[in-house]
């Protein structure tokens, strides 16, 4: 499981850099400043959670079961939060109104919060 978690952390970090570069250089003439700012938020949160996955993958005292639980919650959160922001930010380029997925963003944020809570709970429980 640690290899899977670490691989996911690397993947999300790698793609956050690519998406960030695209947002900074490829979107400037295509969408408004508000959309670019939202897109940047998506890349920042994706990177924060990529780094968190790397930390999770190397924590020695957490059980595989607990790591797996936290991993799935964070991955769902990353996809729902960051990727919905990406789509919402570029919906004019995509040619459709993506507002129907707007609820995915706060749900994804909730999953990220739950992931942090579970990690904190497990750390405090196992490191006493």
From TrEMBL:
Pfam families: DUF423
Transmembrane segments: 47-63, 70-89, 101-124
InterPro entries associated with the record: DUF423
UniProt membrane topology term: Multi-pass membrane protein
Any one of the GO CC terms: plasma membrane
UniProt entry keywords in alphabetical sequence: Membrane, Transmembrane, Transmembrane helix
Main location: membrane
Subcellular location: Membrane
The UniProt record lists the keyword Metal-binding: no
Entry's family note: Belongs to the UPF0382 family.
Record-given protein name: DUF423 domain-containing protein
Species name: Cellulophaga lytica (strain ATCC 23178 / DSM 7489 / JCM 8516 / NBRC 14961 / NCIMB 1423 / VKM B-1433 / Cy l20)
């Amino acid at each position: 499981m640690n290899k899977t978690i670490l691989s996911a952390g690397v993947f999300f970090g790698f793609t956050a850099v690519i998406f960030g570069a695209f947002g900074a250089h490829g979107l400037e003439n295509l969408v408004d400043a508000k959309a670019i700012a939202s897109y940047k938020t998506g890349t920042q949160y994706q990177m924060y959670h990529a780094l968190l996955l790397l930390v999770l993958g190397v924590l020695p005292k957490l059980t595989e079961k607990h790591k797996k639980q936290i991993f799935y919650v964070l991955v769902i959160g990353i996809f729902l939060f960051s990727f919905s922001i990406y789509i919402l930010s570029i919906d004019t380029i995509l040619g459709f109104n993506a507002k129907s997925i707007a609820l995915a963003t706060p749900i994804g944020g909730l999953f990220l919060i739950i992931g942090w809570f579970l990690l904190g709970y497990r750390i405090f429980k196992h490191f006493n």
